[in-house]
Fold this sequence. Notes:
By secondary structure, the chain is of the alpha/beta class. The protein has 2 domains: 5-54 and 296-387, Rossmann fold (3-Layer(aba) Sandwich); 63-283, Glycerate kinase, domain 2, CATH 3.90.1510.10. The chain has 16 helices and 14 strands. The protein has helices at residues 31-45, 63-69, 102-106, 124-135, 155-160, 216-220, 228-249, 252-257, 264-274, 282-290, 292-298, 318-328, 344-349, 358-361, 365-370, 372-387, and strands at 5-6, 17-20, 50-53, 73-80, 86-94, 97-101, 140-144, 164-166, 185-187, 199-204, 278-281, 301-309, 332-340, 354-357. The strands form 3 sheets. The chain has a 6-stranded mixed sheet with strand order 1-14-13-12-2-3, with helices on both faces. The chain has a 6-stranded mixed sheet with strand order 4-5-6-7-10-11, sandwiched between helices. The protein has a two-stranded antiparallel sheet with strand order 8-9. Helix 13 links the parallel strand 13 and strand 14. Helix 1 packs across helix 16. The longest helix has 22 residues, at 228-249. The protein is elongated, with a radius of gyration of 22 Å. The two termini are 24 Å apart. This is Glycerate kinase. Keywords: Kinase, Transferase. It is an enzyme of class 2 (transferase). Its EC number is 2.7.1.-. InterPro entries: Glyc_kinase_flavodox-like_fold, Glycerate_kinase, Glycerate_kinase_RE-like, Glycerate_kinase_sf.
Amino acid sequence: MADAAGSGTRTTRSARRVLVAADKFKGSLTAVEVAERVTAGLRRVVPGLAVEALPVADGGDGTVAAAVAAGFARREVRVAGPLGDEVTAAYALRGDTAVVEMAEASGLQRLPAGVFAPLTASTYGSGELLRAALDAGARTLVFGVGGSATTDGGAGMLAALGARFLKADGEPVAPGGGGLAELASADLSGLDPRLGEVELILASDVDNPLTGLQGAPAVYGPQKGASPEEVERLDAALAHFAKVLEGSVGPRATAYAASPGAGAAGGIGYGALLLGAAFRPGIEVMLDVLGFAPALERADLVVTGEGSLDRQTLHGKAPAGVAAAARAAGKEVVAVCGRLALSPETLDRAGIRRAYALTDLEPDVAKCVAEAGPILERTAERIARDFLD
């Protein structure tokens, strides 16, 4: 690959303070570890350099960790995992603001290796996490969704918060999206009344509707192990779910199903909208919550990044959000990544001055994954020489 991607040549600007605001390198490094490695590499070239670390996330897995790194307290609670077994999940709390990450309870990470349950995985534990945050006194709930093992339209979450979903014989439907095909009646009157007294923000990097060609089952079901036949079953079951809910809560049930974000994280976005959530791009929400604006004001150079800089990055992922905010503030941005699949022109349009990939230094992708930390430090040394030395 080229020495480094981006437009122009080496800058002559002397940066005095660096802000490292990068997401995780999935499967290799957490966002906190990325910040630590970048800081170490920069300071190896410029000893004593002022570096501020602000790990970021876009609402998916790693969101709670980013909040904790920004000063939130980590709270742990025992909840149901996607298969019903108990797991220890965490949320983050600062004052009366809670950051709840659905992947903590209902994510793919909670399934045994190689095991998928597209028809039966439930979001019940995510509802228990939200309830725990309410119990802790939260008045603002930032609900980050992504990385789910589930495609149940948020039915499990709603059930944990007091809703009832029954079959024709009066028994509860089976957990998971598949069980919704037998749904005969829905009763949301028992929902926790505190939900009407708090601000609930649905933070996601996707804006898919609940069903259809761009819906949760069709677009994301295969990632959760759903076969083509199971995708069809799930799509029909979720459409039926919305139809039954229309009889219970009125036309808004159908309107929400077509709304942006309803299909997020296997349709849990739909359940959140039924609870009155306001949908916002995840990275925008998290930058606000994490205190990005004042940190940006203090910085002369911003380092962002994630495991793969590609077309998906441009659609609501953390580096794109960081770069957009930094560009608006007139700050220079460089990016680090494991793999780079964007042209210099595209990076420039996104507000990224230059991108540095681990594969620039180590073409063997397997080695980049296994030795991401040391290679990232060497990559940060190159940034320091190009922009700070």
